[in-house]
Amino acid sequence: MVDNIKRSLLVALWFVFLTFPLMVVKVNTLKNIVEWRWINMLWVAIGSFVLSIVWRWAMERRQLKSKKAEQGEEESVKPGFGQRLLEDPKIFKPVLIVLALVTLVFPLVVDIYQANIMVLALIFVVLGLGLNVTVGLAGLLDLGYVAFFAVGAYTYGVLNSFFGFGFWISLPLGGLMGALFGIVLGFPILRLRGDYLAIVTLGFGSIAKIVIENWEEVFNGAKGIANIPRPGFFGAEMSIHTATTYTYYIMILMVLFAIFITNRLKDSRVGRAWMALREDEIACVAMGVDMARTKLSAYAFGAFWAGLAGVIFASRNTYINPNSFTFMESALVLSIVVMGGMGSIIGVIIAALVLILMPEYLRAFSEYRMLMFGAVMVLMMIFRPEGLIANVRRKYAGRKVVTEDANA
Amino acid sequence: MEYFLELSSSGLVRGSIYALIALGYTMVYGIIQLINFAHGEIYMIGAFVALIVSGVLTIYGFSGISILILAALIAVIYAAAYGYTLEKIAYRPLRNAPRLSPLISAIGMSLFLQNYVLLAQTPDFLRFPALIPDFEFMEPIAHIMGSPELVIVVTSAVSMVGLTVLIKYTRIGKAMRATQQDMTMARLVGVNVDNVISMTFIIGSVLAAIGGVLVGSYIGQINFYIGFMAGVKAFTAAVLGGIGNIPGAVLGALVLGLTEAYAAGYISSAYEDVFAFGVLVLILIFRPSGLLGKAVKQKV
Amino acid sequence: MRKTVIKNLVMVALLGMIMPATGFAADTIKIGVAGPHTGDLAPYGIPTKEAAEMVAAQVNAAGGVLGMQIEVLPMDDQCKPEIATNAATKLVSLDVDVVIGHVCSGATKAAMGIYKEAKIIAVSPSATNPPLTQSGDYPNFYRTIAPDDDQGKLASDFATDKLGAKRIAILHDKGDYGKGFADFAKQFIEAGGKAEVVLFEGVTPGAMDYSAVVQKVRREKADAVIFGGYHPEASKLVSQMNKKRMKIPFIGPDGVKGNGFLEIAGKDAEGVYATGPMDVSDYAVNQKAKADYTSKYGKEPGTFFDQGYAAMQVILNAIEVAGGTEYAALEKALKSSYVDTAVGKIKFDAKGDAEGVGFSVFQVQDGKFVELN
Predict the structure, then answer these.
(1) C113 touches chain A (CB under 8 A)
(2) Res A399: pLDDT
(3) Contacts of A370 in chain C (CB under 8 A)
(4) Domains along chain C?
(5) Is A333 in contact with A145 (CB distance < 8 Å)?
(6) What pLDDT is attached to residue A77?
(7) Which residues of B touch C266 (CB under 8 A)?
(8) Has domain A84-383 been given CATH number 1.10.260?
């Protein structure tokens, strides 16, 4: 304990040193004086001291846990809550019913703000599920996923402003356009692996944004496309509140649809090919899986969902411009997938809800909210490196549960 | 012809800065296969510390070259300290985690550091004093390459030579190369892998801070967000040259810088990033492991 | 362990969802201030927030408006349409009376529909895109800044008539503000027929340097540069032009005309032209606002501070004149009564643009913006 305090004191001293120029000194160029904000030093010292003690304690617990797991106690015998939720019908069914009820009545009992941010969160759930196919199942790291999202949003925006296409026609078209772009962009990079792939996709993401920004005749550039209609319902006039509620239900259906499809696909021939590709490309090709087709289908399929989500995104905001399609959005979706636990559907849903809703609920902290958001991302990764719900490999009758160590 | 020289010079300057940052990326990647997205923020923090130090020193009556040296020195020390701490907090606990987890942790750290500087200092752009003096002898060709540009190119070149010497001939350099080749084996033969990784972060951060000070002084302004773009470009450069490969990072950075300058000069600066990434895609199509990267034979 | 973590997460999420909009006392006037308060565009949003908070604090100390206290509710939108609609619905559900914002034209367009339906008036300090007022789609929109077309005309007339430029290079930052201004400048120069646009090009904000583009301007033998965008890019361009020993006039919009530019560009700022609201620096209201700010924060106010300050002033005045925050009365008050603000004596025309914000061209002389006649 004494040792702990001594060490924490040292840590506090280190952070005081580290933050000194930025937190304490402020040069006032106007009056040419230096402001010494000594009070900040005190806060840093106290803060880092306390945090260091907590940190040390948490690390010890983590180590203890991993030691236990190594010895094969507990963890493998008694699966975690997330897994039990999926496996045990006794828990699974009531939870599902309650969840379904909450989901159904949610927009009816809350105000428009809550419904509105929930729609955004659900859009990111779909994006997460889509990217989950590319990254989680097929193991193709994509840092430019937002490009396909933009394709969907602009498909609707452009079709609507030039030809007056409605939401319901544009929705499938947006998805198809996304898939098409997935294939087109997938072609040149079939041979690339791992992080080379990552940077090229990052490049595609930036290129998409720059093209939208500069090609004014079609995309209206930085001015953006305004007055995009919200989803229609047989031409009925709707207030924004009703329309938001309506969009919410559309989104719920789409999420269910996405879950259903991705879940089924996981067990299909192509789904297995994706996972085989992720585990070992060479072995997979040697077994006769067509590498090009499998990779392209993974891209196309992931991009398809991004396209669909893009159309809804455009209709939700009624306005789109290139600002919504930056690298930050790609990083956000990737974070959702990784934090959810690569490949796990429930994990992705929870992570999307947390990551999108958290900045909104952090509004109380106003300017500190993005600071906290960053810190939470780091902490979540440190304390749950496999994601919220580690992906569970399908088990077959008669075998013991095997927890995949997700070392994709 | 003169136009071509002018563009080449501006590409060279850009490339040199990218190279300084890219070296940090590539060294870290070589050892722990992590895309350290927060590396650009270290560069930004280096620039900020230099700005603050030089502001304080100016007010207390120091002048000229002494400010440049002290500011750069303190910036470098602080960047190293931040790099070291960053690794210890955000990456070391994730050493055995799935491969993408440290990446997300890095993105979170990047957001955190940006907002930390925004809140602790200011969201505004700040004027960065021109610390590098104007040399008389550069005046006739100042429209092609001025003194600050010359200093940038020379400093980058010197840093790179220094780094190469460090890695080739010193004990720590050998340990780094050993760790890069096989971490487990290095540990077995008595290399303290944790120290080597810390050292890698420190060296990378030092180079990034040098880049930050040079850019600040050349451009004359900084804010909390400058690290992001620089980081992405430097990372691109590192991949272009073959990630994990030190001469490759330098070559990639120069190719990227020159491509951007020529694209902006001959085609359109609105599309310069499209060309930068376009070249990247083209090169990777024909050389999937970058310009100097070795194609790794996979054992089956 | 895992169990408790999940449980906690669920608890937090549930708590967050059912957390009711925090109740406020009835006798306050709630003013939402929406704009980018985090992220790369934060420098353009925070000054407005600070201005609104300052005015509110002063008015509250003096007893408030109509005996009611003012409450400022800052809402971050990061200049992204999707976050802007979140911010807008949040403000609506908090029952704000008036909104100041948003800062970016794009975010404003995304949010206006929500305010329109909730019958909330929004006064933007900086959304300059012309259709916001001219299209008629946004009847509840007002702004204390001139639209892009007015400024574009002024800048192009100045370049061709006063400076006698024949070959003009137009650069912009690809954003809605800068590109809008540049587009109109180009349009008016081409329509005027007195000069030729030899270069029309976007630069990337945040790029390492602009030396390649500066070289290009030199090669085109341009005799004037018109730049659409904000002061950081402008000062980067100006200082690189100086480094490359180029001495041609540089004209920017009012995003450049401010102390931020003077501070960053330093000596390089000398001789730069910028359009901007008529000289108000010897105007008492403006002087006081700036002095208050400087004494509070110890630095010069940032971009759009004056406009944000003015927005707050017109709103409070309108509330006082209208005797409340009822939509129609407020609308009438905004459009009928002149107010002394930090950008001059203004009221709004039928479309929502400010009348009385005269524009003129300024030049930096001895480290200050001086109005040219």
Answers:
(1) yes
(2) 46
(3) 38-39
(4) 28-146+283-358 (3.40.50.2300), 149-253 (3.40.50.2300)
(5) yes
(6) 45
(7) 127, 220
(8) no
**Rounded Cα–Cα distance for residues C120 and C95 (Å):** 9
CA dist list (Å): A109 to A50, A245, A357? 40, 11, 18
Tell whether B242 is covered by a domain. Answer: no
**Between the CA of residue B52 and those of A41, B57, B65, B68, what are the distances in Å?**
16, 9, 16, 12
What residues contact A97, with CB distance under 8 A and at least 6 apart? none
Q: Report the 10 Å Cβ neighbour count for A17.
A: 14
Distance of alpha carbon A296 from alpha carbon A304, whole angstroms? 12
In chain C, DSSP assigns E strands to 28-35, 69-76, 98-100, 121-124, 141-143, 167-172, 196-202, 224-228, 250-252, 273-277, 339-341, 344-348, 354-355, 359-365, 368-371
- Return the pLDDT at A406: 43
Testing the interface with B: which of A26, A377, A405 to mutate, by most B Cβ within 10 A?
A377
> Which ranges of chain C have pLDDT less than 50?
1-4, 11-25
Helices A194-214, B226-241: axis angle to 10 degrees equals 130
Between CA C261 and CA C266 the distance in angstroms is: 8
Closest CA in chain B for residue C38: B115
- Chain C residue closest to B143 (CA)? C244
Tell me the pLDDT tens digit for each residue of A117-159: 999 999 999 999 999 989 888 888 888 999 999 999 999 999 9
Q: How far is CA B13 from the centre of its chain?
A: 13
The distance from CA C182 to its chain's CA centroid, rounded to whole angstroms, is 16
Summarize pLDDT for A252-275 with one digit per residue, the tens.
999 999 999 988 888 889 988 998
Q: How many residues would you count in chain C?
A: 373
Q: Which residue has the tokens 């040697």?
A: A286
- CA B290 vs CA A189, A192, B253: distances in Å: 13, 10, 12
Its pTM stands at 0.87
Q: Quick one: closest CA in A to C22, which residue?
A: A364
Bigger pLDDT: A404 or C303? Answer: C303
B187 lies in which domain range? 15-235
Q: How confident is the model at residue B251 (pLDDT cuts 50, 70, 90)?
A: very high
Residue B68 located in a structural domain: yes
Please give the Cα distance from B244 to B176 (Å, whole number): 12
- H/E stretch holding B153 reads helix B147-169
Question: With DSSP H G I counted as helix, E B as strand and the rest as coil, what are the percentages for chain B, rounded to 5?
Answer: 75, 0, 20
Size of interface A-B (CB pairs under 8 A): 184
Chain C residues whose beta carbon lies within 8 Å of the beta carbon of residue A80:
2-3
Task: Assign A366 a pLDDT band (cuts: 50, 70, 90).
Answer: low
The domain tally of chain B equals 1
The angle at the Cα of B210, spanning B206 to B215, to the nearest 5 degrees, equals 145
Say what the ipTM of the complex is. 0.88
pLDDT at A287: 87
CA B56 to chain centre: 26
Whether a cis peptide bond, with omega within 30° of 0, leads into C102 is yes
pLDDT at A74: 47
Check pLDDT > 60 for residue A303.
Answer: yes
- Residues of A in Cβ contact (< 8 Å) with B288: 191-193, 196
Domain ranges in chain A are 2-67, 84-383
Tokens at C59, concatenated: 């008015």
